[in-house]
Design a protein that fits this description.
This is 2OG-Fe(II) oxygenase. The chain is α+β, with helices and mostly antiparallel strands. Helix content is 23%, strand content 29%.
């Protein structure tokens, strides 16, 4: 596996974008690294600043900041179906769904579709589509430990989180805490939500948790799905 791929095991480790080289930009190599990490461990973390480009990351960060400041984001819920429960003891972030209509979103969607096709080619996952939203955590916000999909639903199969926060430090909190899929009491790693850091994991298998943020924290989440038509989340 390329050293740009971070899959810390054993004692919990803190993953920051400066802790290893950026993703290998050779044609397809970053997808090889990503597929290897998913296959071997169920999750992988990559620094994709060079892959996506600073201009796109800045544009996405600007877009979610404007949505947040204009109160265009909605409180996120938990559960499946058209009427999710908004339980602030479990989840406190706000979200806004992406439609691919702006130039930054269109560029991001091209990247996500390349990723979808690359995973299908390497892991034969049969991913047919994806959905994505921005997420904002204000100071004190968190999301308790959970998995992104129920076993056997063939809906959300692969999850992705891309972070959009410049100058993030461990004292700022808001880490993504990742648990061992074989023992969900064991923490595998904590990932700092720094700009350009991307985490990809198997939706049904990897428990994860967003630790309380101490400053405003922006990201976008994406789920790659096997179903052809929208089903209850």
């Amino acid at each position: 596996m390329n050293p740009s791929t971070v899959v810390p095991l054993g004692n919990p480790q803190l993953v920051a974008s400066g802790s290893e080289p950026a993703a290998n930009l050779e044609a397809g190599q970053w997808l090889d690294d990503l597929a290897d990490g998913l296959s071997e461990h169920g999750w992988v973390s990559l620094d994709v600043q060079d892959l996506l480009g600073r201009e796109l990351l800045d544009a996405l960060a600007s877009e979610v900041t404007i949505l947040d400041r204009s109160n265009a984001m909605k409180r996120a819920g938990i559960g499946r179906g058209s009427d999710p429960v908004r339980d602030r003891s479990v989840r406190r972030d706000k979200i806004a769904w992406l439609q691919g209509v702006s130039a930054p979103q269109a560029a991001l969607f091209r990247f996500l579709d390349e990723l979808r096709l690359g995973l299908n080619q390497r892991l034969f996952l049969g991913l047919k589509r994806f959905e994505s939203h921005y997420a904002t955590y204000h100071p004190g916000d968190f999301y308790r430990k959970h998995v992104d999909s129920f076993q056997g639903r063939a809906s959300r199969v692969v999850s992705l989180v891309l972070y959009l926060n410049d100058g993030w430090h461990s004292v700022d909190g808001g880490e993504l805490q990742i648990f061992n899929r074989e023992n969900d009491a064991e923490v595998c790693a904590q990932v700092l939500p720094e700009a350009g850091r991307m985490v990809v994991f198997l939706s049904e298998e990897i428990p994860h948790e967003v630790m309380p943020a101490h400053r405003t924290r922006h990201s976008l989440a994406c789920w790659f799905r096997q179903d052809e038509i929208p089903l209850p989340l």
